[in-house]
Amino acid sequence: MRIVASSLGFFSLLAISFGCVDSAYADDPWQQFDTQTQASLRGLAAIDRDVVWACGSKATVVQTIDGGRSWTQHGFPNLKDIEIRSIHAWDIDKAIVATAGQPALILKTIDRGITWKSTYENKSPQAFFDGMKFWNDRSGIAFSDPVDGGLLIVTTSDGGDSWKAADPNLVPKIDNGEAGFAASNSSLHTFGHQFAWIGLGGGSDGPSRIFRTHDGGKQWKAHIVPSISRAISAGIFSIAFENELKGISVGGDYNKLTDGTQNIAITEDGGMSWRAPRTNRPRGFRSSVIAMPSKGTKKVWLTCGPSGCDWSLDGEKWTALSDVGFHVMAVAPDHTVWAAGSGGRVALGRTVVPTVLE
């Protein structure tokens, strides 16, 4: 969706042990880095503690391979003003991005951003990619704002080298003005081998909706999310799942940054039904949520927005983590958590946050 969330910042590494949780949070849990760009960074791909890719405004793609100490900017000279808000990276050399707006492109590099090859183009003036995710090294999915009255959904089975559009007859109809938000590349979420969810907003007032597929993007069903309302500037901005059943979606109204109502929903049946938390919500509009592994089978949920960041052990009770805000966060396979946002800022969590005592 062409309407975007307000300014945020860049996120971090988080290591959490469990026992008794101290409700206080560290004064400065983030180690922030200067990427030598002022771009608003909204897409993030974390490989590990040392390697991370980020993308954003003015055709910006930046990468660090030394844990944030230095950054390389990978520009697109022929696309200087394009927004790049979706990114996936396989390793230090190979990554793929999607543009938000015209031209509507998916571009791939295999040489650390030195050269990029276009692997998909949609010439409709309505095309606007909101998110792109992968299930594994070869299978992925991307979606765009409505084209010819319905969501444009494309999938790949060869690592993004080619893309195929989903049958529009198998995708639910879009309400007037309904679309996705490209604020963090996370209104689309994939899990397992073939599950995916697309969160929507915009349009007339009412409850938001999530589209769900169980077969790799071939067939979709729409599900109502009553605890996140939609409007022109409101809806679902991010989705995360810890397993095939338990998931959380966040959002709200980006014109009401500290409004903690209608900003979160929980599912325990794979996204077919959604409800509000039983205790309390995050403190305002939130554009990104992740499920982070911890000890044993436990997960820690983290969410961020321009008014700050919050954490929860179960999604039911949310506690302030910091008053520093971000657009997007991502957890790497080694459990380091990065985040990104406006002003070209990137951050990595410093220590155990929040403080947890055995």
Helices and strands, with pairings:
Blueprint: E1 20-21, E2 30-34, E3 41-46, E4 52-56, E5 60-64, E6 72-73, E7 83-89, E8 95-100, E9 104-109, E10 117-122, E11 129-134, E12 140-147, E13 150-156, E14 164-165, E15 178-179, E16 188-191, E17 195-199, E18 201-202, E19 206-213, E20 221-230, E21 234-241, E22 247-253, E23 264-267, E24 288-293, E25 299-305, E26 308-312, E27 319-322, E28 328-331, E29 337-340, E30 345-349, E31 356-357
Antiparallel strand pairs: 1-31, 2-30, 3-4, 4-5, 5-6, 7-8, 8-9, 9-10, 11-12, 12-13, 13-14, 15-18, 16-17, 17-19, 19-20, 21-22, 22-23, 24-25, 25-26, 26-27, 28-29, 29-30
Summary, kept brief:
Helices cover about 0% and strands about 45% of the residues. By secondary structure, it is mainly beta.
Task: Give a quick set of tags describing it.
single chain, disordered N terminus, globular, mainly beta, 4-stranded antiparallel beta sheet, 358 residues
